[in-house]
Amino acid sequence: MTDPAPTLDRDPSVRVRFCPSPTGSPHVGLARTALFNWAFARHHGGTFVFRIEDTDAARDSEESYQTILEVMRWLGFTWDEGPEIGGPHAPYRQSQRYDVYRDVAERLHAAGRAYHCYCSTEELEDRNAKARAEGRAPGYDGHCRELTDEQVAAYQAEGRQPVLRFRMPDRAITFTDLVRGDITFQPENVPDYALVRANGHPLYTLVNPVDDALMEITHVLRGEDLLSSTPRQIALYDALAEIGVGNGTTPRFGHLPYVMGQGNKKLSKRDPEASLLGYREQGFLPEGLLNYLALLGWAIAEDRDIFSMTEMVEAFEIARVNPNPARFDLKKCEAINASHMRLLSVEEITERVTPYLQSAGLVDAEPTAAQAALLAAAMPLVHERMNKLTEAADMLGFLFVGEADLVRVDEVDEAGREVVRAAHDALAGLPDWTTAAIEEALRTTLIDGLGLKPRVAFGPVRVAVTGRRVSPPLFESLELLGRDRSLSRLQGALA
Ligand code: GLU
Ligand code: ZN
Question: What's the gap in Å between 145 CA and the centre of ligand 2?
Fold first, then answer.
């Protein structure tokens, strides 16, 4: 928050990256990071790079990769370089870039910016324990920084394979975080760290900054959990510039606040409200979910919660991101989604609910003309009451199934049976099957004739016809259902 807001926002040289590791099911933290990077890139008219950090074969999966792509598309993100579209720095999957990393690692070693470390895990642990006991900071102690040729030969004779370790400079590292202001790390807290495993496998510590350098990333916006790796990366950038990897500029960093879940603990991948696929399944609108995620650390204005992504892009400033942890509030997320539902026209909602009705088996993959007509007629009855897209299946399901498939969530009770019988008889002989005629017949018979209160009169009819106590407006529903099906359902409820 220390940097003044840029006076001239347009800056096509801006290049940001979203670089998830494909492990597990994509979660809301991931989407929030993607969103802030994307909004930042679009705000400045820069480039949004999408890169896959899949160098951890034990944890990464193709399924997770595919799901991330699918979720990114569902949320409506567009990327300028990355999977499936390529770009000037292709490939954008790190698993296809091992040659690059091997080459850079060798050059860092040759330049003396990294060195071979032969320490075994046990030796490292022993020395760490000793450091703790003596009140010193644990972490690598520089043991192998200046090994003699004899020492190296002796380790090799033992058959030890070295890791490649980065030689941290012996000075404090300060940088201005775009969200948090000036941050300084003292050298004793940032020990030399491994870049390449003993088996030759490059680590995140190497591949992430190397690709940021090669892809000429100007701004790194990512979660606060990565803050402690930033001084190491800044030092590595200097070394990369020295050996001619990238264009020599260090990106600016902005660390986005933690997202806290239940009980004020960090929202974890395993929390059910963290799953992005879950939101799609539950019928959230992508624009509703994104609007909510934008509020996890940012605000468009005081007292304003609802906005479009276009409005967000226009207004987004990284300096106005709040460094304090954000609380994930499912209720608020649902309320914001509901507001976005209200913003859609009935035609748009109809289009959006169709896949949900299809996967519920209510509408054919290629909707029949009758189904399309029924849907077009029914949606105006419910679209203003819907908070999520899945609710269409609950509210309108009764229209799309035959008698045998009607799910009766509620049943007509004993007292209601009389009413249903009377309703059936009143409707059986109706000449015109229109909403107005249906209403008139039922009112005359049930309210005027039997002297019932409207709720007592129409409740059982509703349950008989729709299988639920809550449904779209009753008379309209009966019209849409048609005479034959309505009468047979009234009868069916009596059976
Ligand atoms: N692949 C890393 C992660 O998912 C990216 C870290 C970063 O943005 O630098 O945590
Ligand atoms: Zn060592």
Answer: 7
